[in-house]
Amino acid sequence: MKRILHILFLLLLTGFAAMAQRPPAISSPEVHPDHSITFRYFSRKAQKVSVSGEFLTAPVAMTKDTSGIWSVTVPPVKPDIYPYSFWVDTVQIADPNNTYIFANERFKRSIVDIPGDKPLVHSLQNVPHGKISYRYYKSTTLGTTRPLLVYTPPGYDPTGKTKYPVLYLIHGGSDTEETWTKVGRANFIADNLIAQGKAKPMIIVMPYGNVRPSPMPDFTKDIVNDIIPYVEANYLVQADSKSRAVAGFSVGGGQTLNIGLTNTDKFAYVCSYAPFTATDEFKKNFSDWSPNADQMNKQLKLFTISIATEDFLYESVKQNIAMFKDKKLNLETLVVPGGHTWMNCKLYLTNTLQQLFK
Amino acid sequence: MKRILHILFLLLLTGFAAMAQRPPAISSPEVHPDHSITFRYFSRKAQKVSVSGEFLTAPVAMTKDTSGIWSVTVPPVKPDIYPYSFWVDTVQIADPNNTYIFANERFKRSIVDIPGDKPLVHSLQNVPHGKISYRYYKSTTLGTTRPLLVYTPPGYDPTGKTKYPVLYLIHGGSDTEETWTKVGRANFIADNLIAQGKAKPMIIVMPYGNVRPSPMPDFTKDIVNDIIPYVEANYLVQADSKSRAVAGFSVGGGQTLNIGLTNTDKFAYVCSYAPFTATDEFKKNFSDWSPNADQMNKQLKLFTISIATEDFLYESVKQNIAMFKDKKLNLETLVVPGGHTWMNCKLYLTNTLQQLFK
């Protein structure tokens, strides 16, 4: 009987392997205590495998052992969360042994989390946790049911009387409604800053900002006419402009400027990160623009643009900053090192969350 | 000025392309009204590209046009959600132009959704939608903070008095806590069956079932000692065995048998899908087992095992079915065509949801 069980067990294992033609399960990425990282990939047939990531200036070649496992250990990396991918001969792939994927509509890289010696602001810490809810709303503007994510802070009590301010937080161009949580860790950043008393408890709404093939201005209408009413009908929300913020990155940073600055009666906080503004909507709104700066400066409690010096949009953003200042708008800027990255997105958001609703 | 803007715009586009070394955005998969599907992939360098998927008996070669876009259109496929991947020379990849990924800890395939001529039970329909919440609980058993997803049904009102029964629903071996929603569409299936009056409104808790490197029995302890108390402290829950069900697929199907049948005082519904049972815990629980069948049959309102005839676990599951029947347990079986697939998982769950809490 024992022998039969043993044979059965082997057959089952064989079945599992045969079923999915799976390569062996290997550990990748393996982050070491000194913050160096070992990447591994299995292929007997590949001629060349390398790892490419936003912690590297150039791809690093991996070497193959006799069992067909390619690997390389890269020197210590500054603690943060980085996207990376493998190049296998001419093909770019995500790391098949890594659970965590960069939520995106196009090529989805893997992400590696290098913890700090002390917990970072985006780390899962031993503090009360807010809740992320996946919701669906009917967009009358876009004629469809669309997804959005809602972060409610720790202690949010739907049975209570406390109402919260709301940040509407928009992802980048080919990202999805999940990118701000899965890559940007907006929920953990908020949890930690709220626990430290550095941010006010707030609701964060993360909509899906891409509208295709319709033109971009529809998303401004969608957020004003559909998303805000949905949120205010379903959550305990302070429904005045001083309790409403909009922020976003890249294409979402451009959307933030369009949404926020044309609706200063609705948003007292407009926080744009590395905005991409080469759009018809931006041109229409701001290329021949004579704002009532005094009125806008009274309505806006905070208008910020954040940008990194090696961001490929740096020159364009500098011009927009000059343009807004030229129109006499009170504009605060945050200029940091680095590129057009989600490492910087976390930094921008960490800054914003400490400024809002105070 | 217009010329300068135009040049700036071109520079920006170039920047975007250069930044990420991105291939052109192409549409893939494209599902046609007749349920045929066109797959596309861009590579100038690949020698051979094919598509492999659970709607195909063998990989299908794609052909390259002069611009480097490989494509193939496969004949009409039965409406459902299928995992698929591309083989580029010797490398297996997810479809880089498809947003939707099979949530898994190892190789992550893409998924394609072929809608029915009428909406399917797993389709987003125009009915009230429940809410999926991403939560974190402290596991004293496992000594860490772990994720879980909670589906609350449409109309769930934390301020109200209605309490709900709970289904604990466990994923397969290398899946994640997201696989039942992202691939299994448990939320839409529940929304639709509840709207049709075919399922009772219920809460569905989807934990992360993998425990490594610890031995498997820890997850049984975790669900009983940590997850159930967390859920019952945070949701309006009917906290008796007649209002508690456990179900799961593959490795999770084996966990379901271990969890459910050793805790019939806690679970009156035990629904196991294609269980993988070659584990120490299963052996310990059931290889030399003398249950009090009369008592268990009184406690269990429903004990089901579902399996497909071409599932690689079919023979093993048949033996377990015979073993449980031999022990005089009342066991209902559902045997369907097909393999060890998430297409069948949706079918099993659809069946279960209509049987629970009635």
Automatic annotation (TrEMBL), chains A, B:
Which parts of the sequence belong to the Glycoside hydrolase family 13 N-terminal domain? 32-86
Give the source lineage, highest ranks first: Bacteria, Pseudomonadati, Bacteroidota, Saprospiria, Saprospirales
- Name of the protein in question: Esterase
Keyword Protein transport belongs to the record: no
> Which GO molecular function entries does the Swiss-Prot or TrEMBL record give?
acyltransferase activity, transferring groups other than amino-acyl groups; hydrolase activity, hydrolyzing O-glycosyl compounds
The answer on whether this UniProt entry bears the keyword Iron reads no
* Segments crossing the lipid bilayer: none
The organism sits in which domain of life? Bacteria
CDD domains given in the database record? E_set_Esterase_like_N (cd11294)
InterPro entries hit by this protein: AB_hydrolase_fold (IPR029058), Esterase-like (IPR000801), Glyco_hydro_13_N (IPR004193), Ig-like_fold (IPR013783), Ig_E-set (IPR014756), Mycobacterial_A85_antigen (IPR050583)
GO process terms (BP) = carbohydrate metabolic process
Tell me one Pfam family matched here.
Esterase
